[in-house]
Design brief:
Blueprint lengths: L4 H6 L5 E3 L8 H9 L3 E5 H4 L2 H14 L5 E6 L8 H10 L4 E6 L7 H6 L3 E6 L2 H9 L4 E5 L5 E2 L7 H9 L6 E4 L5 H9 L5 E3 L1 H4 L8 H9 L5 E4 L7 E4 L2 H11 L4 H8 L1 H10 L7 E2 L13 H20 L7
Length: 326
Amino acid sequence: MIKTRVTEKLGIKYPIVCGAMSFITRPEMVAAIANAGGIGFLPSAWYGTPEKLREAIRQTKELTDKPFGVNINYFPSTKPLPTMEFVEVIVEEKVKAVESAGHRDPGEIAPRLHEGGVVLIHKSATVRHALKAEEVGADIVTIVGMENGGATGMEDVGTIVLLPALTSKAKIPVLGGGGFADGRGLIAALALGAEGIVMGTRFMATKECPIHDNYKQRILNATERDTYLMMRSINNTHRMIKNKYGDKIRELEARGATLEELLPYISGEKSREAAEGGDLEAGYLLGGEAVGLIHDIPTTKELIERIMAEAESIYNRLGGIGFRAR
């Protein structure tokens, strides 16, 4: 059993987190992760209103009595989000944790969350922003490298460098994200100073994930070379799985398309159409470089238990290796 400050603060069995993924991390999926010993997050921005978020929280509670969380989105949005109203719902419903992420620090929400007994996790792609989140009240910080699916930041630094760079400075627990998919990654993250891992792409290829089977098969058939970056021209870099739709976005960016020209192609609805409908050219496909490590579609419980068993096996094996100075 691997216990860390993350498992203790969140009240979870295993140090495995599924970050929020827009329309994907719905109550059924979040509950499955919670029941398997990890923790997942509902996406408040996707629900759009406090009333719909409250409904999703209550649906999740009907499916699990284990801890789960809600994501607060600070990324650019085409419409304003009622952030503080979301926070009130989260506190009222006694949700265990909030995962915040985006282009602002969580200073405005930290006091109310702490008053309500909610653990605040902030996700960042840079060390300096993670340390700023710690300064303004985050209880845990997540650092994601450029291997990450979805938002990667603008600096193109890998997780293997970001984790020790941050853990050598942060006083609060750190989670690592970007490229993690198995027990080998968990042990590596712990060795680099993290106290748990965040996975998104790996959880997409599970039976409970509500994306179309075509999308899951695309993940299985992909290699570590089958993703690329886009939206850098609008300072919102995201990693996607390669397809013709993504090629079009990259072509538009290469010729200097404006935000207004890009918006019809990069809306979340286009991604949802592809993910749910199964036409993998109908929109862009979120996914990280971890696609190269994914070869099956287990249940969430099977996946998490496999990761933990593999991590324990590696830990025991490494304990038997003799290190001798030459």
